[in-house]
Amino acid sequence: MNIKNFVLRVINGSKARIWIMTFGALLCLVVIGIFNTVSTTTSSDSYCMSCHIHPWAEQTWKLGPHHNNRTGVSVHCVECHLPPKGEGYLLAKAKHGAIDVYGYLFKDSSKLNWESKKLLDNAKGFTYEKSCIKCHSNLFPVTLSVNGSNAHLAYINAKEDPKPNCINCHLNVGHFDKNVKHEHDTNFGVDAALSQEKFTSATKVDKFESFTEKIPGTTVAFDMVAIPEGIFNMGSPDNEPLRKPDEGPVHKVKVSKFWMGKIEVSWNEYLAFFQATASQGRTEGQIIVNKNVDAVTGPTPPWGAPDQGWGKGSRPAITMSWRAANTYCEWLSKVTGKKYRLPTEAEWEYACRGNTTTPYFFEGDPKKFSSKGIFKKIFGPDTTTISSHIVYLVNSASKTQDPGSVKANPFGLKNMAGNIAEFCSDFYSPDAYKTGVPFVVNPKGPESGTEHVIRGGSFKSDAKDVRSAARDFTKTQAWLLTDPQMPKSIWWYSDCIDNGFRVVCEADSIK
Amino acid sequence: MKNNMENNSKNINRRKFLGAGVLAGIGVAGASAILSSCSKKLDNAALGLPPILKGAPRGRKLKAGLVGAGNRGTGAAINFISAGPDLEIIALADVFQDKIDNCRKRFESFNLPIPAENCFVGFDAYKKLMAMPEIDVVICATPPHFRPEHFLEAVKNKKHCFLEKPVCVDPVGARLMIATAKKAEALGLCVVTGTQRRHQEDYIETYKQVANGAIGKLVSAKAFWNQEHVWFRMREEGWNDMEYMIRNWNNFCWLCGDHILDTHVHNIDVINWFMGKHPEKAIGYGGRARRVTGDQYDFFSIDYDYGNGVSSHSMCRELDSCANGTGELINGTEGYTNCINTIWNLDGSVKWKFEYPKDENGNTMNTIKISPYVQEHMHLVHAIRTGRYVNEAERTALSTLTAIMGRTAAYTGQMITWDAIMKSDMDLGPRKIEFGPVDMVFDTPLPGTPAHV
Asked: Cα distance from A143 to chain B (closest Cα, Å)?
């Protein structure tokens, strides 16, 4: 009997049905078996790590508590980076698998921005809260501390928006990060004191021109740029690409002369303030009635590392609250005898434009620079010109950069756009420009409000949000989401890492 | 189409018939389930209510320790052993020797002596008692200031708990209570609190009526606990600050929480229970007129806002020779109820009345037969012995926090929101609990002046 005969008999014979059913069943088993093997193999740690060879993935996992713990239980890649089986496991596996295959075929893994993947917003995209809860089903183990209990109570009682995610607080439990501290840093800024000679007095200013301010009693100095009086068109015209409605209508604004910090307030500057005024050991939110009315009461020790481990020095200071930024200005005014404060929104935009009327203070089309849209994802945005002026999403490596890395604007100011978003003194309102008045002098914004204006975008921003007219505002509640203290800190934001400020000095500070 | 149907009916084979039969069966069962859920009223279990018991079931012997051996503590311990068979009190803890002695005498008089080596005195006595491995249940009946830390220690030592109300005096304590309640739940430890109205058959039956729509949608409520002045003690020679305050604990806010917690929390708890939620904010006032000792108020009047226009007026007073009374009243769109035994129509006619049992002479009694103070211990023992889990700590903490929100509204004159009181760092009392002088100021709160919320 040859094979052909056998096949014919199987198909046409009297027991054809039984043969076909048996064959079908076997085929099913084989397919399921193969599928299972493939699924298991492609979900193993070694398979994941065969592509995810970036330096920190395996090492930091091994150093972290999901591998290095006293129970001896090791939690594997897919147990956090995919949802639990039966809760969207296969769908998510297919999705991430497709992205990985695309990346494997078309991208150079050494050129990927792995640092940015560690940021909370990105990590949420490939870390599944359902999987956290699957294993950590008991949020109240008997050993949980009072602070931990309070935090978990806040988590389970949280209403939507902003709803905390496990990794809001536990971001580094999967991959160890030595820069992350889980405690009040009572030594914060203490070791920054240098042995250099300290300034004994502030710079004397007798005419309106740029000068270098010296903070008395410290070794810290910073540049102030003289900004001449002028009239400019505030806001963006309706035809500006990628604008938002709150940027209009365009209206004429006159701004008196003032000095503005050449760079954003640096850690050197902010730490001088911190050391002079820090209220160590004081409870958050307590208002101190100080008998010595001249003394400025400053921040409490921060939680963890406010500089995110990126370094201090001339990098911009970040994570302080709007209130803390104002207290800094108050203190700086006191020690220098000048009038320092936050810029108004009008002063900020005037200074940023430097007499330009285009979307940026240099040539360029926001549409070409923006990374949004499917074509940009494939072909990449145009980064010429913008990259030399602005630290933003594409070139920032997801952290603040030293001001030396960019060119100045026409007024000689650096990082007006990008690097970090900057506080203004105005309350934010989307209708702030819709006053019906075509010409205003030194506007100070709405009389009341809850959140304040921030301008300039940050290292996280797309090119469209670092335009000179782009507006944004503080989000106090969301920025304090994971602060475990009750009441929450008035000095530090626990959940905002890309905001700081720049000072202005009033022109009548001339002595 | 017709052909097709005929075809089906003619060629019906065994397998198909079976399938159709099963489907039909499922259909009938499903329909009856739907029908029954429409017509049948929700029962105790579905409404989260405890069973009404004539006694705790038999089972493994349960040994209990009493922490806080004063009047209520001794009473609670007696209630516990009265709840059913094989229940014992084997240990006592208190800060005062005389309280221990009195309690031991009571138990000796029942022929149930408590061994001297199981009696502990001092501020850390509770730790020694809770560390005893033979103890299954801890009864916590000290002044409420100490309740949260005692509860936590009990849960750490894996004890089932009976907690007297109120369960804390400030928001820090309330949060510790809630978190510890969840820890107890994770360990399967049963917790019953001394909110006896929730264990009273007449209240429970009235609640079932209301939950099943007897008065329509709830639109407003009032809760009141107005009574004569309560006990106080004058300072005696030889008492240091701490001893005096603890012996007179009912008159100091840091120990007692004021009477809006101490007693009125019962009424507040009933309103929260019937409303099915806690209020969103409180505004109110109170004052001190005749008190002799301590720093508390004589009266409170609080408006609790439950949202959507629903509010509850809460009042409590401890003054002699005034119009007194205690209870609750809830108005609905279709009637109203006193929460304990009667439902009226909107025109004032009685719609439903709880049927009280008859005494030996055949006369209807005006209370239920089993004291609710004993019934709550029956529930605890029932839960431990049958595995039908109970944990009332969180809801009683929420009712206590509701009272704290009202107290703070009255003390400060401000509107206090639930979110603010839930997050408050108010933590009453001296940092260090020890006998000796206490460096605290006891000004009576003055509304309209800055206050710590």
From this structure: 8
